[in-house]
Design goal:
Number of strands: 16
Mean pLDDT: 93
Low-confidence stretches: 283-293
Oligomer: single chain
Distance between the termini: 8 Å
Radius of gyration: 20 Å
Largest sheet: 8 strands, mixed
Amino acid sequence: MTEELLFLDRAAMLACASDVEVCDTIARALRHHAEGAIRMPPEGYLPWTNEAGAYCRSLAMLGAVEADGEPPVRGVKLINAATSNPGLGRERAAGISLLFDHETARPVVLAEAGWLSAARTAGYTMVSLRHLGPVEWDTLSVIGCGTLARLHLEMLGTAFPQAKTVHLYDSDPARAERLAQWLTRHCPQLVPHIAPSARAAVGAAPVIVTTTTADAGYLPAAWLEPGTFVAHVSLADLLPDAFLTAEALYVDDISLVADNPRRVLGALLRDGLVGAPGIEPGVGHAATGADNTARVVNGTLGQVLTGQVPAVRPRGGHVISNPFGMAILDVALLDAVHQVAVRRGLGQRLRLY
């Protein structure tokens, strides 16, 4: 008896992507999460510092979507990153993802995980912006102009055809210039403007997307104009006061965010400066705003989609979406890609023995 699996490199993944509704797939998995039809064991996390002194890490993330009336989907993503990679002309993160057979538990598909992870993240941002963003907008700002920013903007053109202008900022001006040139060629409906500073970019639009590799905050509440929606995609761009003064805070999974003190919101939850359903108060106390109400996480995006918690759009202040990054979204998206690959005969068969 032989063992085989299907290998999907990035070219195969991209070929399948045109037949996959990424945002719909992400939204469906988020609903299943809110309904409790998923499982996510604790992720494996291995950090180190390379010879250049750069932060490196390896993440192993298992997930299962086990909704009634649907075939179960189970798998794992192994995604590694080094903050020094962009300076070497490499993407910051790369890895592999696997799906498992329900009956034999054998891996059935092995896929390049860099695009998958970025597409999952961008899809989540699109869904959050659709349900939590300003009612009317046509301008956004993107801080951090690497691969993740590019995929966000590529997806944005389809999800939000009203978007006309994008302000770009990156600590490396050449990277922002390259993204602007790419947009001109591939997304002509979006007119790029390179901002001279992060503050200028933040003040130029009601929609802010952070896709940086920053490990220290720099963006205070004072930079955020009334009516701003922030997709805090990356790790640590926002300073604590941005969370403490927000009109509303939404995450993908409260426990995942709370258990990760490297994230600003995770540290605030741990210290009891922000409250959340099901999270025991820490050593501090929940902050209160001008209305004298406790600053709390409103809920998850999945709960918004299922109607379990109300959606709050920015009005006189700002709303923050702060996802952790859930393995179930990668697993669900890979399953959708895998179905297209099988139907279209894409990918390579690899014999294990």
